[in-house]
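REVIEWER CHECKLIST
Item 1: Sequence provided? yes
Item 2: Single chain? yes
Item 3: Sequence as submitted:
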Amino acid sequence: MDLTELFLVTIVTERILRDEIIDLIKDQGSKGHTITDTFGEGSRGTRVSDFEGKNVKIETVVSREVGNKIIDTVSEAYFENYAVIVYAHPVKVVRGDKYI
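Item 4: Structure as written out by the authors:
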C-alpha cells in the first residue's frame, strides 16, 4: 500500500463563517473537506447561547503549498475580528492523488 504525505489543515470557527471558509479553501485548491459541529472555550471565551449555531471544525487534506495558502488567507481575513483557530500537520494518506 502506497502512502502519500500531505497536509491536514484544520479550521475551527464560528458557524457564521462556515460557507465563506469553505469557498475560500476551494478557491485555494482544496478538493474536499469534512465539517464537524463542535464547542469549546478559548481566548474569546465561551458562547452565551447557540443562537448563531455551534462552532464548526473544517478539515481538508491538501498539498503543503495549498495548505500554506489556506492558512495565510484565513489568518489575514478572519483572525482579527472572529473566533478562528487554524492548525496543520503532515499526514500520510492512501490514494493521495485524490487530494492534489
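Item 5: Key structural point noted by reviewer: The chain has two helices and four strands.
Item 6: Recommendation: ____
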